[in-house]
Design a protein that fits this description.
This protein is 19% helix and 25% strand. The protein is of the alpha+beta class. It folds into 2 domains: 85 residues, no CATH class; 59 residues, DNA Binding (I), subunit A. A hairpin with a 5-residue loop joins strand 1 and strand 2.
Amino acid sequence: MAKHEVLLLNANYEPLNVCNLRRAVTLLILGKAEIIEDAGREYKTFAGEHTMPSVVRMRYQVKRPLPRLRLSRHSILARDNYECQYCGSTRDLTLDHVVPRWCGGPHTWENLVTCCRKCNLKKADKTPLQAGMKLKKQPKQPHYVPYLSLQSYMTAIEKEQWAYYLPIFKEFQQKTVN
């Protein structure tokens, strides 16, 4: 069976996590969670057939400290939708400091972008202006769903059954084709 992911909601319907089917079923069996949306399929166990969950909700409120969004390679790639911020390519991606480190450019959300190797070599140790290149959009720290990593959120917003339970941030809305 292919990997099946389940959106886990807190008792107040706030997204908590994305977990695998095994973890979701364990929470259901222990009575700690209930099915809110099913996947429209069944799975078999020694005890019989059961409905496969897509969204489950905890029966009690889970209190956790609010996490901070970490600056990482994967978070930058997810923020930039896995495409080069200079040419739009989705192949052979790396990161680029808009203002090079040697010029005093910081290692921050506002100075890092996704870049293909070809554009990275072309830009080299220059600013985009010096290299004659233009950014598609100005980089900034994204908003995010508490408890979900940026990568999990990017995957989750594409699932129709989960959309109702996730806040929508303008910078991650699907681009409509005219």
